[in-house]
Amino acid sequence: MLISSTSPESYSRLRLAALGLAGALLAVPLVIASIGPATAHSLDQPEPSAVTTGASYADAQVGDLVDVRIGDVHPTQPSVGYDEVYYKLGRYSELGKDAVNKRFGDWCEANGQLDAVAAESDATLHDPASFTCELPLGGETEQSIAEMKTVVIGPEGALYLTDGHHTLTSFAETADGGLDLHVRLRVTANLSDQAPAQFWQMMIANQWTWLEQVDGAPITPADLPASVGLGNFADDPNRSLLYFARDIGFASGTIPFQEFYWGEWVRDAQPVDLSGWNANDRDSYLATVRSLSEAQVALDPAAPIAGGFTAADLGVLPAWNDGKAEAKGEWNKLSQPYDAEKPGKLAYAMAYKSQLSPSGEEPGGEEPPVDPGTVHGALAVSGDLRPGGEITVSGSGFAPSTTGYALEMRSEPVQLAEVSTDETGAFAATVTLPMAAGTGSHRIALLWNGVEVGATEVQIEADARADGGAGAGAGGSGAGGPGEAGGTAAGGNSGAGATPVAAPAPPTAAKLAETGGAPVIAATTAALAMMLVGGAVTVLHTRRRRAE
Question: Which residues does the annotated region (Disordered) include (predicted)?
């Protein structure tokens, strides 16, 4: 067999070429790491538009109007005033006396299109083409945008409502609404690049969340409801009382949770005696609203109220009923009975409440089934927190006896199992972490029809087994609600089992970068490069020896 000789000069040139190829391969992971998931996406994505949907929430900018499914919006307060919602539902129902039903007007206003001016006889909220708003889409004005409800974009593009809990809850509860209804919200901040703990720190610092129970007891973000809907909120009677006192004792302003601060003042300062208040009697309600609003306007504008705000900050009026006579202004509107041509808000609330059973449910039937998407619980994780490791996820506080939950690992969603709860709303599932899971922070989440109802954060450790190590990587994570990392490991609840889901297709390099997989790419490419260097040098050395 003929063996060609290799000169020293040729040998050197080939060795340099091999080393150059290896260097190019070694540079690949550095390029990927320098791009990162956010910048890599920006290379082929258009600039955010004025209307943003679904997958692009994380890219939304302040001032954007985002189309949302209201069941996907997370509340930032634990309670609402039920009577405010009852007023709206009364006016939305067959009790309403408006020429164009008020629910269409409220939807148009929330959508940035002012009021509704017409509606077909069979119009529904799910079909915006069946009613006409004052402004067309694209014709929004500064005024109409200012009146929209607001949202903050959180980690992983999650939506956190900062204004509009009563309106969206009313949409969720009305006959032609529900959690699948869509409406637009105005973005006031995008904190999607923050870790959950930092996100909630910023929400608290900006006073974009209300973390108090009705009695003033503090709560954590994990205690907040997962979705809007009356069944998810506690009833705050003082919050309703303040709603009906709007424009009589104070004016609505731009401070988030304004009426909660006033409600805190009512509860703690006790400016009026509420012991005789009958919230089911219109006359008693009116008398209490009057006493409260008179106490408000008697305050010094500089008087501290709550949360560091003064009476002036919270919109106290200089005179009762804004200086108008009893037969004029907002007090006159509120005082109108249901048999008037234009009933007052209290009249609608009382009329609607009179149709409810003592338990608060519609009469004439059993209590409606629980929507699993509105019941949030807690998760705890223990086991081998390494790629390919086996973990046990325990959950409690979810909808009882329910099949069809999806257990996912995020950031890049990977479904781990389909989960069923037992009669107590608990479950325990043993699943295997994806081999492609990168090291670092991830979230284990439970979803119902795409709505997150529970989540906790876990730390995926490097797999020492890949280097021949034998150490165990067991770990745990604490119970946490939607959007918040958990603390220390919580004891799991035994419950219904889980159905494992088939392993997904291997992620692309871009997907691995999003889930912390860039180190895997770097290690693999470096190993390949070194193998090529070694192979090239060995071949050349052999040829040289044979030539000699």
Answer: 355-377, 469-505
